[in-house]
Design goal:
369 residues; alpha+beta; Thermophilic metalloprotease-like; eight-stranded antiparallel sheet; five-stranded parallel sheet; 12 helices; 20 strands
Length: 369
Amino acid sequence: MPDPRIEKLSEVLVQYSTAVKPGDRVLIQGHVLSEPLIKEIYIQTLQAGGHPLVIPQLPGMGQLFMSHASDDQLKHIPEPLKMALEIYDVAITIMGSDNTKELSNVAPDRLQLSNQARSELMKTMMQRMGDGSLRWVGTQFPMTGNAQDADMSLREYEDMVYGACLPDMNDPVGYWKRFSSWQEKIVQWLKGKDTVHVTGRETDLRLKITGRSFMNCNGRQNMPDGEVCTSPVEDSMNGHVCFSYPTIYQGREVTGVRLWFENGKVVKAAADKGGEFLQSVLDTDEGSRLVGEFAIGTNEGITKFTRSILFDEKINGSFHMAIGAGLPEAGGKNESAIHWDMICDLREGGEIRVDDELLYKNGSFVIDF
């Protein structure tokens, strides 16, 4: 019997997140094991009058590419993919993996070369998402690899995924509209502010947000969602941070990450595990040592670390930042082939002050929104 939650999630993605309308060209990408969700999105896109194009991903293809591609092939971007991201109106990406570790043994310099080649794709996507010409949303289909990473059975993981995406099964679209209205109050409070000071365990960071806008991350680009985010002024980040959770990038897990900043740039980095990989990613390009995003997680349904950034960056009671590409729609100017999110728990003694006014303490807003 089909899981009714798949139809409900597709409804949110097509009707709310991307608001597919007649004539829209819709790119749908996902692992073949997410076939039930791909098919439902395909059906609902057709019912909405859109023109769907499905690009499926086969198991193990990433590892095969990295193992056999020449340097020239690593740098090649298929023209159809480039064209789709340049002209399509909607892109729906379904994440999830049967093996999240398939790239774990790939040499860092090969990953770096591939990342550098995709910098133009990243730039195109960021710019088009920023100006509204591309309506993109990413979601996750529950798969065994992700369930194992989260130390859950597949059934437990399914319940977590759908619970975070569909807090109200009877009216999931209505829920996200109500959530958006609540979060917009936080965004409006932050409007026009200048400085942010974050303190926590081994963390003391100062950054500027002058002239930058905070985004109401309300399920339009991620599902699940739940964060308010911006791009800090590029040369403003100073201080140090210790990230509470392992940070995962391209299947590599780096633990105990600590970063030191001077005038916006990472000047020192350390990790308990995976330090060599961390350094290689930081050296990807000119923009990879700058911070492209600063955000506060607000999804009360996500409380446990799962090793999936789509969920973990929204953990209620946390903040996260991403090194690399900035958010043009928030005023960010940094360009990079990478965008690597790292999360810090503030539920035990953490604070966020904005223009010297206390906004957030021990993982909760102290101002009534």
